[in-house]
Structure formats: structure tokens, C-alpha cells
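User: Please predict structures.

Assistant: First:
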Amino acid sequence: MVEENVELEYNKKSAWECFSDEQVRQAYSFCEGYKEFLTSVKTEREAIQFIQQVASDHQKKIYVNNHASAAIVVKGSKPISEGIRLVISHVDSPRLDLKQVPLFEDTESNLAMFETHYYGGIKKIHWVTIPLSVHGVVIKADGSKVTFSLGEDANDPVFFVPDLLPHLSHKVQDEKKLRDAIKGEHLDLAIGTKIDIESEKGKLKQAILKKLYDDYGMVEEDFISAELEIVPAYKPRDVGFDRSMVGAYGQDDRVCAYTSLKAILEIDCPVYTSIALFVDKEEIGSEGNTSAQSVTFLRSVIKDIDPSVDVDTVMLNSTVISADVDAAITPNYTEVFELKNASAIGKGISMSKYTGHGGKYSANDASAEYVGEIRRLLNKNNIPWQTGELGKVDNGGGGTVAKYFSRLGMDVIDVGPPVLCMHAPFEITSKLDVYACYLTYKAFLMQ
């Protein structure tokens, strides 16, 4: 005989059914701060600067690694040798980067241009004819730094990648596969048309170089020691008649960075030492010294907390949430999802037991025991959740940073909100899913 109130079937409820009216109000309020964060943070450097400043204001212990990764630590009541609770997110997002020698002039079109190299998995067709801004740093010959954030203010100029009009695109674009219609070398940025009348040659290029020197003290060689990123100039916006969604660039994965930041800032006396780790380069395979694969940074943080501890023992006793987004079921394209195991927007955070592609290739696959532990945590705290998977078995796939931490002996699982239009210049999340994400990370870090 079935006990009273026992649900025999797994029922993926909407977050609107799970949250009270007060929690819905709190979710909407929470996302006002989230939108402000997305407005001010368009690159990984800006994200780390923001995190560093906020952590300092809250008097939290923070470690910063090479401008692009960071860790916030709150000591627990148990010794660190018994393990840590780690939430890790990444602060980089797909974009266009300037090449090291980017500036050229196209005399036939009368346009000065910047050469770009796309970063991460993008659909190139998304990046043409939209307003773009320039962010980043330039290190000049004398070692001084110029910081760019141009195109965000209403009075700033914006930039764009030109596209071909439909009247002339039939053979050049329309008959090709979508991925081949726009080539990477065609993602050049239009930056000006004014010529330098006094120049004998290179009149467009010389005019831009003079403008850059007058405004920033830059010469062309300075581009070689620069990190300049081209990102959408869109502002975060409420989406829908009910304002239930957030539309913005860079929500993969800054939604998890913001929610884990807010969670750890509100923790004072956890049971286990809690760490929120923010890394770079996830979108290109987590390579480099600021990425999840560079575990030296985390090891040094653990050693700084307790120099006498054996780091490997700490890691073997630790549990991790890989805080990354999942693909939300997309209307009109439901055939690529396995709907029983896919996440939907507005139904809470998504818990992915495994990632990878094909036969779980290059995946983290969490143990049943650890999945059960996270499931109990979510149910205990009445947080709406669902399972997630990146498409049908032979159809999709993708990876996160989870596998790099499981290799260290840690229990790891992916938990984050579903996102519509992932990797597009304008991504969509549910406000209730964002709030559920924050509640999840806070509950996990407090245990």
C-alpha cells in the first residue's frame, strides 16, 4: 500500500507552482541586481574586478589570479582537512577578439576596419549587423595601461560587422550551409569612414591612428600587447509581457557567477569551509593559467588557508557544484531534445548527472550517492529543480569544468539554470530559475 503523500511519478513542476507569491517577488527583486551586474560586466576582467570589489566591501577573503580568475573563501567550523564545499563558475563568454595587428582600411568601401578572431562557440551569423562595443585593456610601450569600455553609454559610438544585402546574397551566402554563410575572416569590425586629408597614403588608417593617439596616447604597435574584446552593446532587458525573463549578453555563465557570488557573500559560519571559485577560458576548453584546468591556483588557496594540510586529502573529502547553465528546450526545435530528460525554462535549476557527448565521451558522471545528496538538499530547501541533458544522445552534447575537478577525486555535479538562445548575443533566462540557482548555491555552501 502506497503511503499518504508519496508521489510515485517524477513530476517536473513549474517554479511558479513551487514558489510562494513572496518568493516570486523576491526573485524579481533579485534579478534587478543581476541586470545591473550584467550591465557593468561584459568581460572576464570586468567580472573579476567587480567580484573583487564586492568581496572587499563585504570583508570576505578573496584571492585573485592574473586578472581573470578569483576565489572567495569563508572558513567553516570543521577543519579544512575534512573537505571543502566548492561552487565553481566561469566568467568568460563567447565574443569577438581583436587580432594583434587589427587595423586596416578597405579603400573600395571607404571603411576603416578591425580584424577579429571569434572566441568560443558562436553562430557567426548572429554577430553581423548588430551594435557592438569594445572592452578591454591595452598595455603601451612604457607599461602604462589604457582601459576600454566604449559603446555602452548612450552617447558612445558603437561598431558593427557589415553583412550583405539579401538582393546580392543568393550565391555568396544563401546557397551555402548556415555555418559557412559567414566566414570567420569576414567578421571584420567597421570602425570609421573619415579620411586624413593630409596623408599621401593610407588616409583612412592614418585618420584612425591619429584619433587613437589623440584620445588614448596609443600607437599601432600597442595593439600587439592588448586584450580587446568585441561584445554586444545590448543592455539587459526584462522579457515578456509578464517581465518573467531576463534577456542579456553573457548569461552563460555569468548568471552562475553572480548567483554564487551573492550566495557566498551572505554566508558567515558554514559547517565546511566554503569557496566560490571563478575561472576563465571555459568557452575554449579551459586552457591557460586562469582556467579550471590550472589547479595550482586552487591548491595555493587551500594551502594558504591551512599550510599544514595535505591538499590531496582535502580534495578527496570535498564536494563540488560545477555552476554552469544548461540548454533549455527551444520551441520550434524540440526534435533535437530528449524531452523527458531536458530542462525547460521556468521550472527551476537544472541538475545534470553527466555531460559530454556521444557515449558520455569527455564527461563528468556524478555518482548515484552524490546525486542523491544534492537531490535531498534541493527538496529539503523546497527549491524547484529538474534534470537536464544537452540534447539527444547522438544529436548534441557539450562539456563543463566538472570533469577537471572530478579528476582530483572530488564529487562533482553540474547545477545551473536553463538558458534559451545559449551562446547568442542575447540569451534568455527565467527570473525564477535565476533565483532558484542562488538559493541552491547558498544552501550547498552553508551545509
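Second:
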Amino acid sequence: MDNLKLILAVGETIAVEFKRCGNGVGMDTYETVCSFLNRFGGDIYLGVADDGEVIGLPPNTVQDIVINFVTMISNPDILFPTVYLSPETIEYEGKQIIKIHVPPSSEVHSFKKVIYDRVADADVKVTATGQIAQMYIRKHKIYTEKRVYPYVKDEHLRLDRLPRIRQMAINRHHNHPWKDMTDAELLQSARLYTMDAETGKMGYNLAAIMLLGLDHIIKDACPAYRTDALLRKINVDRYDDRRIVETNLIDSYEQLMEFAEKHLWDKFYLEGDARISLRNAIAREMLVNTLMHREFTSSYIAQFVIEKDKMTVSNASRAEKRDPLTPGNFVPNPKNPIIASFFRNIGLADELGSGMRNLYKYTPRYSGKPPEIVDRDIFRIVVPLDDSYSFDVEANKAHLKHNGNDDCALTEKSILEFLKENPRATQVEIANAVGKTRRGVQEAIARLREQGLLCREGARKNGRWVVHSTIE
């Protein structure tokens, strides 16, 4: 009952829908059933207003409502394919309501020959051929990277890149199997030249095109493919800098990393005795993920956007969960396992799941806040940015606070002693007297005021400092 109370308080979501059901089950209820089946599933509550107020159902109608509902969803002319659902009657504060749990389905369903999808808290008609295709891809977990293109030949690929790729693999593992393979053997080993299991045709697949294809071949296979890199710090309505990346995935990674290195601070950070580039570590995970795990057949344009307070990557995906991803609930699920394996072989990615862990490890050290990762039809990683934040400085502050550092206490004592003799001194004069920076003095004064040892009286220009006590 407490759970229902919370659901009513939160309101309608992508997985919760309220229906008044005053005159029986309305057609919009079946639209919601259809959209839930096509998305993540969800719960429908009959007898509840849109704002979460429990209206209730007349007790003598509940059984008829259940029977009519089950009859409708069992009719293939109404809902196709049909499903079996078991409505549950609930009593809440003396009123009866009906709960219908709709599980996600492995099929694409239609209501009266119209396909519906769940977007936020709305049921949306899906009519575009591309959108419908995406739903089938999502439902059947089709790996579009495996699609074979029998008319793509060697001359359509950058096979001249293979020596460099082979060396990258050797640099990662000295005795890598690709070391002694011919180019043809390497391509087959990497599963870039395969057989179409349905037609029996041999050829290069979409993974090969995305990894090694000439730019115009990539465009022919995936017309909407590109990554739009934008800097929006001053001109937020347009951009301050832009780079459109439309080449193969390996070169795309290098171009996007150059954009990140150009516009992001490379803050000092030590991990043990080794300096780690937090900027590169975070950007690498974000960019590798958006290149490896996107759905290339989608018309959605992937983006890498750097703003004043955050940077974001977004790309089309095949979502299986609706919750934000965290290390606690994350289960590795490569959208393009062939491409992901290729990236791991050449050292641009580590084992599955490591990118998630690295983002949650390094982002707080870079900006003081955790990242946000959400996998829906559009996959997003949002990393907060704070140019003024320094993990090194903050860690030192925490150390000083925890250990009562003598230098910190000595600075505060020197300031109090100086101000007892010079109550009208400016912060610059204080800094010169105690041998600290102005910012250091500001921080020390803030601590002293917080402890009640120091206060300020009078106007800003003509006021004076009043020392209430000294530090022993």
C-alpha cells in the first residue's frame, strides 16, 4: 500500500499510466497497453485521475470491466499480436481500482493496425518506416553491424590502414594473433569478412565499412552517420567551435579526441606516483562508447557537446533499460560486439564494463560530481564540468581539516594577531603581512568568521575587523 501511495504521488511516467475509467475502459487504455508492450512494460491504474487522485470504480462494475478488457486484448482485430494480461483489483482508502501490469514484449504490437510507442508519459503513434524498423531492431536484438554487403570490395576499404592497426594490436599484446596473419586472415579473424547466415553470401559487413570504409562508402551504407562536435560556452544558441566528423570510426575517435583536448582543461592529478590525464581518461570513455555502441542505421545525428557546466555525448541506441545506469545496476551489453571487440584488440577500449567504472571513478576527481548515464533510444552520458574545481586542492583541504594542519592554524593565528593591531587592514595588506595569497587569506578569514573568532563591523570601505579571541 505504501508503494501505491508513492506511485500516486510521483504521477504518470514512462511506465505508469492513470485512467479514470468512468464509463468503462476507453480506447486510450488499449493504446497504452500497446505502447507499454512495445517499450519497457508498465502498470496501468483504472479508477485514478491524471493527477493521481483516486476516484475509484463502482464496485458492481469491476468484474464487467475486467471481463471486457480481457476480451478486447484477446481479439486480434483489436490488438495484434494478442496478449494475456491478468488485471488485479485493489482497494485503496475504501475505493476500488484495477491494476493492469503490462510486461515488455518480444513482438511489435499494434492497436487497430496502428503501432504505438511510449515516450515519457505519452502514447505516441509510430508511422514513419524508419521508426518502425528501429522498434523491430530493438525487439529482436538484431546486430545490424553483421549485415553483409556483397558488392563492397577491397578497393572500397582503407586496407592501407591494416599495418598500423596490426601494430596497435601488437603494442597492446606483444604476441597478438594478428601479428603473423595476412591481411585477409586478419579481416576474417576480426569477423569483418563473414557469411550472411540467411543468404549464404560472403562479403564485408557493416562493421568493416564503419571501421575501414572510404568516406563515401560509409555514407552509402549509413547516410545519416556523423558525429557533430560542438563547443557552446559563450554562444550557447549556436556554437563557439564546431567539427563535423564523418569518417571511419578509428579516425573519428582521433578527431574527436583532438576536439576534446583543444577545449577541455587538463587538470593535474596523481594516481599513486603516476600522473593521469583526467581529461583524456574521461573523454576517451565517452567517445569510445558513442562510437562503438551506437545504432548506425538510425537517422539520429550523434553529438559531442562541450558547455560551460557539462559535456555530453548522445547517440542512437537500442535501449533495454529505462533507469539511469550506475556501477550497481549496470550489466555489459555491447550493441555492436564485432566493433567493440575490434576496439579492444587495438587498445582503444578495455574489457566490457570498464568504461562505466572509469567514468564513475574519474569524473568526481575532474569536476567534483558524478556522471549521469542513461540508456534509452537515445543514449546519453553527461559529465559535469567545473573549471574552478581541483581534486588536488580539495583533497588537501580535506586533509588539513581532518588533521588540523599546523600551517593552517598558524596562518589563522597570524591573521588574528595582525588584525588586533591593524583592524582596518585590507585583504591585500593582510596577505602581504602573513605571506599568503589573497585567496588563501579569504579562505582563512571565512574559517575564522565561521568559528566566531572574527567579525566585520561598519561599511565595506570604512569598516574594521573585530577579533573576539585568539588561537593558542
